[in-house]
Specification:
six-stranded mixed sheet, binds adenosine-5'-triphosphate, ABC_transporter-like_CS, 326 residues, alpha/beta, globular
């Protein structure tokens, strides 16, 4: 009896499998006594820019290294682009990127570096034009300068250009925004957004909440080798309870009095009595009530802004909690 599935079903299954770029279950990785990753679960769908964030030593680079095939997990399962990763140290097909900065030849120019990498990757690699990728990352003007004289941001951009040479299906980047000036950041963000729109998945680490907010639809927060949050940024912001807000009004003294009388609003002690700006701690409904009361009292609200962004507050709360549970 022929047990093979009809062609349409096989094709359907293939697509289902490939729509997941990364699927990690129970990943553990230790270095001697240090447990760098402790039961990591991670799902990254195709075409998603997924941010990894966490305090120093949380395990971000270790996890990115596993995705790039630079190390293997002690236990757990890791599926990349539909294939289960074995014990061999090699980047699965379609995966590229870098951890700890890109590997470049300092004595060669930017263009020569890319030509050398393209030659190393051989004919099978789906290479795209060197000039195109240099243009994508904004390095056309320095294409014939030696990399030795490049700044950190320029090296990062060249590393990204090198990764683009192969039209990756999964791009893995450790702190790609390190050292980037605003123009560099714009180029890098533009490249990553375009890649994702074309179906490439990107997993990147960053310490910068503004980068994550600008780029990522989902983030995973690691603390001491564990996932303390994974999901959309909007859900992360909602995890925040009470935030501190800076308040600038037309009458600070009266405004302080009104704030002190509003239920659920706490005026911070550390703002000077005569300061024009002061800080209140409140949840959103109490803050709304405060604004209404200020306006009713004839006090104009000139500025009202969180002291730290809701994302940063949620990040701090979640990671500090994990640290204290250790
Ligand atoms: N090769 C190694 N040998 C020994 N310990 C290691 C090694 N690599 C990582 N570690 C340890 O594993 C833990 C996780 O390190 P990792 O570099 O993955 O963290 P990270 O989140 O990338 O930190 P950072 O934000 O500082 O880059 C740390 O305690 C680190 O000291």
């Amino acid at each position: 009896m022929n047990k093979s599935l009809p062609a349409t079903s096989v094709a359907g299954l293939g697509r289902l499998h490939e729509s997941v770029a990364v699927r990690a279950r129970g990943i553990v990785k230790s270095f001697g006594e240090v447990i760098a990753l402790d039961g990591i679960e991670l799902d990254v769908p195709q075409g998603q820019i997924h941010g990894l964030v966490g305090p120093n030593g949380a395990g971000k680079t270790t996890l990115l290294g596993l995705l790039l095939g630079l190390a293997v997990a002690d236990s757990g399962t890791l599926e990349i682009l539909g294939t289960t990763v074995g014990r061999a140290l090699a980047a699965p097909d379609g995966v590229t990127g870098f951890v700890d900065g890109p590997g470049l030849y300092p004595s060669l120019t930017a263009r020569q570096n890319l030509a050398a990498l393209a030659a190393l990757r051989g004919r099978e690699a789906r290479t795209v034009g060197i000039d195109d990728v240099l243009g994508d990352v904004g390095l056309t003007d320095v294409a014939d300068d030696r990399v030795r004289g490049f700044s950190l941001g320029m090296r990062q951009r060249l590393g990204l250009a090198a990764a683009l040479l192969t039209k990756p299906r999964l791009l893995v980047l450790d702190e790609p925004s390190n050292g980037l000036d605003p123009a560099g950041k714009k180029h890098v963000h533009g490249v990553l957004t375009r890649l994702a729109a074309d179906g490439t998945s990107v997993v990147l680490s960053s310490h910068r909440m503004d980068d994550l907010e600008a780029l990522c639809s989902e983030v995973t927060i690691l603390a001491t080798g564990r996932v303390v949050f994974s999901g959309p940024l909007s859900k992360l912001a909602a995890e925040t309870d009470e935030l501190g807000y800076r308040l600038l009004t037309s009458d600070p003294e009266a405004a302080r009095r009104v704030a002190g009388e509003t239920a659920g609003v706490r005026v911070a002690d550390d703002t000077g009595q005569n300061a024009a700006v002061f800080v209140v701690h409140a949840m959103v409904p109490a803050l709304d009530e405060l604004v209404v009361r200020l306006v009713q009292a004839g006090i104009a609200v000139r500025e009202l802004a969180p002291v730290v962004s809701p994302l940063e507050a949620a990040f701090l709360a979640l990671t500090e909690q994990q640290e204290s549970n250790r």
